[in-house]
TrEMBL record:
It comes from Anaerolinea thermolimosa. GO terms for biological process: cysteine biosynthetic process from serine. GO terms for molecular function: serine O-acetyltransferase activity. This is Serine acetyltransferase. InterPro entries: Hexapep, Hexapep_transf_CS, LbH_SAT, Ser_AcTrfase_N, Ser_AcTrfase_N_sf, Ser_O-AcTrfase, Serine_acetyltransferase, Trimer_LpxA-like_sf. The keyword Cytoplasm applies. PROSITE patterns: HEXAPEP_TRANSFERASES. Its EC number is 2.3.1.30. The lineage of its organism: Bacteria, Bacillati, Chloroflexota, Anaerolineae, Anaerolineales. Residues 239-280 are annotated as: Disordered.
Length: 280
């Protein structure tokens, strides 16, 4: 009875997350992601009761039928939905929480030959975009969204967005929507924004340098290069986001200019970016 109750939950979750779903019969007949999850639940039960070979054979059969490979040892929570599904691989020690959504081509892979925990843990309400790879015994925090084709190799805090190769982790400044977070088009370009801001900063420094070069030297001054170097050093050290400044010093008002890119996006703890830099 518990198995059939889980099946009903799974069917309801498809209606919630896939606008293409039109009827229960259509879901039962044409959603390989659901078939793979149901097959895994049977295989996982066999695995836990010691029927390892039979469980692996059933997993292999479901892979042949659906194009989705889920090791029978993987632990999967309730209302897990794999949309489209072809090419999904979930390793033996992977753990998946409730209300998680995966798209096609996703890999939850291991990075070690040692036995024990070597695959990712996805907490509740995580959405993983098409083609993303999450590798190693890392945890993706609840409510996070992994962008398509991202390669995630380090832990992800809750309520984050990950984009790029290797994955850049952005802690969101806005709350996660109550419904499944499927806004895959809202993806911050952390590296691109930073490079653009750095280019703009260099242009500002070049303008300052040109102004200093054109400024007449006071009478009796002979060390022009030393004066320019001192002025530039003071101007650079006033920037709050440079390494070593700790974000504590603020540039004077005259140091700010109209900027298309705003302040410089910067990483905070352990390579994690701030969502305030990207308004997500």
């Amino acid at each position: 009875m518990k198995f059939f109750s889980l099946m009903k939950e799974d069917i309801r979750s498809v209606f919630e997350r896939d606008p293409a779903a039109r009827s229960t019969l259509e879901i039962l007949l044409s959603y390989p992601g659901l078939h793979a999850v149901w097959g895994h639940r049977i295989a996982h039960g066999l695995w836990n009761h010691g029927f390892k070979l039979l469980a692996r054979w059933l997993s292999h059969l479901m892979r042949f039928l659906t194009g989705i490979e889920i090791h029978p040892g993987a632990k999967i929570g309730r209302r897990f939905f794999i949309d489209h599904g072809m090419g999904v691989v979930i390793g033996e020690t992977a753990e998946i929480g409730d209300d998680v959504t995966l798209y096609h081509g996703v890999t939850l892979g291991g990075t070690s030959l040692q036995k024990g925990k070597r695959h990712p843990t996805l907490e509740d309400n995580v959405v993983v975009g098409a083609g993303a790879k999450i590798l190693g015994a890392i945890t993706v925090g609840a409510g996070s969204r992994i962008g398509a084709n991202a390669v995630v190799v380090k832990p992800v805090p809750p309520n984050s967005v990950v984009v790029g190769v290797p994955g850049q982790v952005v802690v969101r400044s806005q709350p996660r929507p109550a419904s499944p977070d499927l806004n895959h088009n809202v993806m911050p370009d952390a590296i691109g924004n930073t490079v653009a801001a750095l280019v703009e900063r260099v242009e500002q420094l070049e303008t300052l340098l040109n102004d200093l070069v054109r400024t007449p030297m006071p009478a009796g001054s002979s060390d022009r290069l030393a004066r320019l170097e001192s002025d530039l050093r003071i101007h650079i050290l006033q920037h709050p986001h440079l390494p070593g400044n700790g974000g504590q010093k603020k540039p004077p008002p005259e140091a700010h200019t109209d900027s298309t890119h705003g302040h410089l996006p910067h990483q905070i703890r352990e390579g994690v970016w701030s969502g305030e830099d990207f308004s997500i």
